[in-house]
């Protein structure tokens, strides 16, 4: 025998939504989106994203992400995570998307620059094969990851801020 | 502190990951700049040295801690050894696999005068310069090994 629902179902749905709203607004928006937090989020996002791009592109380091499934997961999940945290700040999804993509491109630029640093400082002689490597692993792949995963993370979190 | 929501927890997780990444970034950049500066991370030490028929023979322990295969030597003159005089060195190309340690033996003909003086004192100062290539990165660099008062095996 199916159990009959107790009380007024319409009222229950209303209460359910109230509870949901309470849970959503339990997060202290004013605090986590204040100026200092926003600056910290931006800075750390750039650092995190450029770090994973850099250690994926550089194969010489023992802790390089290149060549393992775990490495690829870290390569895509870190920018996703950084984009997600950035997205919580915005109530306008378009603005969130634009901002996170700019952050992603700045990170690509920084990791690209750091990969070329030994060449610029003339610490070692690099041949043309090196540049080919840097363009593929240091620019092309990070570009794809930025376009897909940073924006996906941002849209996921920005969408939770849109209620009306 | 009470964690009130998933968003808050994610923000604090982000802070931890971010701070960790600053440290990792500084460490990584410093490490690979040092790699590029000399020998691409190769660690060479002289484990044994002896004199034999007008030649100085060195046994080297070569360690490659990095993630790329590194080649030592090649065709022609691939470096030089400086004692009191400087001598050219030839060494057949040798692959040192990523994460491996290999023993390399280098034998160089040295002048009779120097041979006798080293034989007499039983030790010498030396500087060894070798060519290092990394095909995967299409790069060439050098490595310098310096030993003071290197003891000769009798």
Outline the secondary-structure elements.
The complex is a heterodimer of chains A (164) and B (154).
Chain A: H1 9-25, H2 29-32, H3 35-57, H4 69-87, H5 93-120, E1 125-126, H6 128-159
Helix pairs in contact in A: 3-4, 3-5, 3-6, 4-5, 4-6, 5-6
Chain B: H1 6-37, E1 43-52, E2 55-63, E3 70-72, E4 77-82, E5 86-90, E6 94-96, E7 101-109, H2 112-121, E8 123-134, E9 139-151
Antiparallel strand pairs in B: 1-2, 2-7, 3-6, 3-8, 4-5, 4-8, 8-9
Written description of the protein model:
- The complex is a heterodimer of chains A (164) and B (154).
- Chain A is mainly α.
- Chain A is built from 6 helices and 1 strand, in the order H-H-H-H-H-E-H.
- In chain A, helix 3 (35-57) packs across helix 5.
- The radius of gyration of chain A is 22 Å and the shape is elongated.
- The two termini of chain A are 40 Å apart.
- Chain B is α+β, with helices and mostly antiparallel strands.
- In chain B, the strands form 2 sheets. In chain B, strands 3, 4, 5, 6, 8 and 9 form a 6-stranded antiparallel beta sheet that branches.
- The longest helix of chain B has 32 residues, at 6-37.
- Chain B is elongated.
- The termini of chain B are far apart.
- At the A-B interface, helix 3, helix 4, helix 5, strand 1 and helix 6 of A face helix 1 and strand 9 of B.
- Strand 1 of chain A pairs antiparallel with strand 9 (139-151) of chain B.
Rg over alpha carbons of chain B = 23 Å
Shape of chain A: elongated
Total DSSP helices of chain A: 6
- Cα-based radius of gyration of chain A, to the nearest Å: 22 Å
Short structural description:
The complex is a heterodimer of chains A (164) and B (154). With 164 residues, chain A is mainly α. Chain A has helices at 9-25, 29-32, 35-57, 69-87, 93-120, 128-159, and one strand at 125-126.
């Amino acid at each position: 025998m199916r159990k009959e629902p107790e009380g007024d179902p319409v009222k229950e749905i209303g209460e359910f939504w109230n509870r949901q709203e309470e849970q959503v607004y339990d997060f202290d928006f004013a605090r986590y989106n204040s100026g200092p937090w926003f600056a910290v989020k931006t800075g750390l996002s750039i650092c995190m994203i450029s770090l994973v791009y850099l250690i994926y592109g550089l194969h010489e380091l023992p802790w390089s992400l290149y060549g393992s499934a775990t490495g690829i997961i870290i390569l895509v999940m870190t920018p996703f995570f950084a984009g997600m945290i950035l997205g919580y700040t915005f109530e306008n999804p378009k603005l969130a998307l634009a901002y996170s993509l700019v952050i992603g491109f700045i990170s690509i630029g920084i990791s690209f620059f750091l990969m070329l640093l030994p060449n610029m400082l003339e610490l070692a002689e690099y041949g043309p094969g090196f540049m080919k490597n840097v363009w593929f692993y240091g620019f092309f792949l990070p570009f794809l990851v930025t376009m897909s995963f940073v924006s996906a993370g941002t849209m996921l979190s920005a969408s939770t801020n849109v209620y009306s | 502190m009470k964690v009130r929501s998933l968003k808050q927890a994610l923000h604090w997780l982000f802070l931890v990951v971010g701070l960790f990444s600053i440290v990792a970034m500084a460490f990584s950049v410093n490490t690979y700049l040092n790699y590029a500066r000399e020998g691409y991370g190769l660690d060479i030490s002289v484990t044994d040295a002896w004199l034999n028929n007008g030649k100085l023979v060195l046994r080297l322990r070569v360690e490659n801690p990095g993630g790329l295969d590194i080649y030592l030597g090649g065709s022609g003159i691939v470096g030089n050894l400086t004692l009191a005089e400087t001598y050219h060195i030839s060494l057949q190309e040798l692959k040192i696999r990523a994460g491996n340690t290999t023993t390399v033996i280098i034998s160089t003909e040295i002048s009779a005068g120097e041979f006798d003086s080293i034989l007499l004192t039983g030790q010498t100062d030396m500087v060894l310069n070798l060519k290092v290539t990394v095909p995967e990165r299409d790069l060439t660099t050098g490595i310098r090994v310096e030993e003071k008062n290197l003891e000769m095996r009798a």
